[in-house]
Design goal:
The protein has 240 residues and is of the alpha+beta class. The chain is 27% helix and 22% strand.
Length: 240
């Protein structure tokens, strides 16, 4: 149903189906692939990667890997909530154990399909793979993921590519980040136009959500799992 008030398929409630599908996709992928997501930034406050702890994401309501950042986010969000405003967030996902060879070099690129899936999540406004936009400031030497021979195959010395090169997985962890916009339903009056084309001021009433990114980590995990499961099944169908 098309509901201009934000219900129906515009509602973030539809992501429940995505999470359910992601649970099935995880079964397809098997236990060899570990897929985890974390909230890395709320508004201007980003986590300190030196304090990154995946276990910490299950110990707080923010999916935050940096325990020291939790009270900072709590105070900041309370200020935003009381002001009737909202703020954006960034979620990072990492899939470890993805073997080399998944994806395709042109129209079925693994990173393109992953980006499309993550961009389809409600309120997502940007996706980057690996170094992402930061790669624009790197030199060719800095951006190149150098390789050395290991006992079990090639070893990469960095992962600027986010585990995907030329649309195909490299065997490294697949890493992506999703930027979520501030919630559009805020209490502050905003200038707009009504159905008659008249200039008006609009103010959202009812339940207020200061940051939708807080609940996005399981959805990002689910969409990543679905994309990787598709890639795995196509790879198996092609090469056995």
């Amino acid at each position: 149903m098309r509901d201009y008030r934000g219900g129906g398929r515009q509602s973030a409630r539809e992501t429940a189906a995505r999470v359910a599908a992601g649970a099935v996709a995880r079964k397809v992928l098997g236990e060899g692939i570990m897929l985890r997501a974390a909230l890395t930034q709320i508004g201007p406050h980003a986590v300190d990667r030196a304090r990154w702890d995946w276990d910490e994401t299950l110990a707080n309501p923010f999916w935050c890997p940096d325990a020291a950042m939790v009270p900072v986010w709590e105070e900041y969000l309370e200020t935003v909530r009381k002001a009737g405003s909202s703020t954006g967030a960034i979620v990072e996902v990492a899939a470890e154990g993805v073997p080399a060879g998944w994806g395709a070099p042109i129209y079925g690129k693994l990173d393109a399909e992953l980006a499309a899936a993550l961009m389809s999540i409600n309120a997502a406004k940007g996706v980057e793979i690996g170094a992402g936009f930061a790669a624009a400031a790197l030199s060719g030497e800095e951006n190149a993921d150098e390789m050395r021979a290991g006992n079990d195959g090639p070893i990469f010395l960095s992962n600027q590519a986010g585990g995907i090169l030329g649309g195909i997985s490299t065997g490294q962890s697949v890493v992506a980040r999703v930027a979520f916009k501030p919630t559009s339903s805020i209490l502050t009056p905003r200038r707009s136009i009504n159905e008659a084309g008249e200039e008006i001021e609009i103010r959202t009433k009812g339940r207020h959500d200061p940051c939708v990114g807080i609940r996005a980590a399981p959805v990002v995990e689910a969409m990543t799992a679905c994309v990787l499961a598709d890639a795995f099944l196509r790879h198996r169908g092609q090469v056995g």
